[in-house]
Amino acid sequence: MTIQPLPAFEPPYVMSVFTSVRTQDDSGYPETLARMIELVGDVPGFLGYESARTPGGLGITVAYFRDHASMAQWRQDLEHQTAIRRGRASWYESYTLHVATVERSHGFVRADT
User: Fold this and answer.
1) Is 59 exposed, middle or buried (0-12, 13-18, 19+ CB in 10 A)?
2) What's the burial of 105, exposed, middle or buried (CB within 10 Å: 0-12/13-18/19+)?
3) pLDDT by residue (tens digit) across 58-98?
4) Which of 4, 11, 19, 73 is the most exposed place for a label (fewest CB within 10 A)?
Protein backbone atom coordinates (compact mmCIF):
# COMPACT_ATOMS: atom_id res chain seq x y z
CA MET A 1 0.00 0.00 0.00
CA THR A 2 1.35 3.41 -0.97
CA ILE A 3 1.03 6.13 1.65
CA GLN A 4 0.15 9.50 0.16
CA PRO A 5 -1.39 12.70 1.40
CA LEU A 6 -4.89 13.59 0.31
CA PRO A 7 -5.00 15.38 -3.03
CA ALA A 8 -5.15 19.15 -3.13
CA PHE A 9 -8.73 20.40 -3.11
CA GLU A 10 -10.08 23.32 -5.12
CA PRO A 11 -9.98 26.41 -2.86
CA PRO A 12 -11.53 27.92 -1.01
CA TYR A 13 -12.27 25.29 1.60
CA VAL A 14 -11.86 25.09 5.35
CA MET A 15 -9.73 22.91 7.58
CA SER A 16 -9.55 22.15 11.25
CA VAL A 17 -6.25 21.21 12.83
CA PHE A 18 -6.71 19.21 16.04
CA THR A 19 -3.45 18.81 17.96
CA SER A 20 -3.58 16.63 21.07
CA VAL A 21 -1.73 14.82 23.81
CA ARG A 22 -3.54 11.72 25.04
CA THR A 23 -3.88 10.27 28.53
CA GLN A 24 -3.15 6.63 29.31
CA ASP A 25 -6.91 5.90 29.37
CA ASP A 26 -7.76 4.10 26.13
CA SER A 27 -11.09 2.65 27.28
CA GLY A 28 -13.62 3.08 24.50
CA TYR A 29 -11.35 5.33 22.45
CA PRO A 30 -10.78 3.04 19.42
CA GLU A 31 -14.50 2.33 19.08
CA THR A 32 -15.42 5.99 19.44
CA LEU A 33 -12.78 7.01 16.90
CA ALA A 34 -14.13 4.47 14.40
CA ARG A 35 -17.66 5.79 14.95
CA MET A 36 -16.56 9.42 14.50
CA ILE A 37 -14.83 8.54 11.21
CA GLU A 38 -18.02 6.82 10.07
CA LEU A 39 -20.22 9.76 11.09
CA VAL A 40 -18.09 12.56 9.65
CA GLY A 41 -17.97 10.72 6.34
CA ASP A 42 -21.74 11.24 6.05
CA VAL A 43 -21.52 15.02 6.49
CA PRO A 44 -22.18 16.76 3.16
CA GLY A 45 -19.11 18.85 2.38
CA PHE A 46 -16.64 16.68 4.30
CA LEU A 47 -13.61 16.23 2.04
CA GLY A 48 -11.38 13.95 4.11
CA TYR A 49 -8.83 13.91 6.90
CA GLU A 50 -5.20 13.10 7.65
CA SER A 51 -3.87 12.05 11.03
CA ALA A 52 -0.50 11.22 12.60
CA ARG A 53 0.95 10.69 16.07
CA THR A 54 4.59 11.15 17.00
CA PRO A 55 6.44 8.52 19.07
CA GLY A 56 6.43 11.11 21.87
CA GLY A 57 2.63 11.21 21.86
CA LEU A 58 1.72 14.42 20.02
CA GLY A 59 -1.20 13.77 17.68
CA ILE A 60 -2.29 15.95 14.76
CA THR A 61 -5.49 15.45 12.79
CA VAL A 62 -6.41 17.75 9.93
CA ALA A 63 -9.98 17.56 8.67
CA TYR A 64 -11.07 19.26 5.45
CA PHE A 65 -14.54 20.60 4.71
CA ARG A 66 -15.96 22.39 1.66
CA ASP A 67 -17.23 25.30 3.79
CA HIS A 68 -17.86 26.55 7.31
CA ALA A 69 -21.48 25.35 7.19
CA SER A 70 -20.42 21.72 6.70
CA MET A 71 -17.82 22.04 9.46
CA ALA A 72 -20.50 23.51 11.75
CA GLN A 73 -22.80 20.59 10.97
CA TRP A 74 -20.07 18.22 12.15
CA ARG A 75 -19.34 20.28 15.25
CA GLN A 76 -23.04 20.21 16.19
CA ASP A 77 -23.52 16.46 15.69
CA LEU A 78 -24.84 15.04 18.98
CA GLU A 79 -22.62 11.93 18.98
CA HIS A 80 -19.62 14.12 18.20
CA GLN A 81 -20.56 16.41 21.11
CA THR A 82 -20.71 13.36 23.41
CA ALA A 83 -17.27 12.24 22.19
CA ILE A 84 -15.86 15.72 22.83
CA ARG A 85 -17.10 15.62 26.42
CA ARG A 86 -15.67 12.14 26.96
CA GLY A 87 -12.37 13.22 25.42
CA ARG A 88 -12.08 16.10 27.88
CA ALA A 89 -13.02 13.85 30.79
CA SER A 90 -10.85 10.84 29.93
CA TRP A 91 -8.75 10.71 26.76
CA TYR A 92 -6.88 14.01 26.46
CA GLU A 93 -4.28 15.70 28.63
CA SER A 94 -4.57 18.73 26.36
CA TYR A 95 -5.57 19.76 22.87
CA THR A 96 -5.84 22.75 20.59
CA LEU A 97 -8.12 23.30 17.63
CA HIS A 98 -7.28 25.70 14.82
CA VAL A 99 -9.73 26.50 12.02
CA ALA A 100 -8.64 28.15 8.80
CA THR A 101 -9.89 28.97 5.33
CA VAL A 102 -7.55 27.64 2.66
CA GLU A 103 -6.89 30.08 -0.14
CA ARG A 104 -4.27 28.13 -2.07
CA SER A 105 -3.67 24.42 -2.46
CA HIS A 106 -1.47 22.31 -4.70
CA GLY A 107 0.24 18.94 -4.63
CA PHE A 108 2.95 16.78 -6.16
CA VAL A 109 3.17 13.05 -6.87
CA ARG A 110 6.37 11.54 -8.22
CA ALA A 111 5.75 9.69 -11.47
CA ASP A 112 6.88 6.06 -11.60
CA THR A 113 10.14 5.73 -13.50
Assistant:
1) middle
2) middle
3) 999 999 999 999 999 999 999 999 999 999 999 999 999 99
4) 4
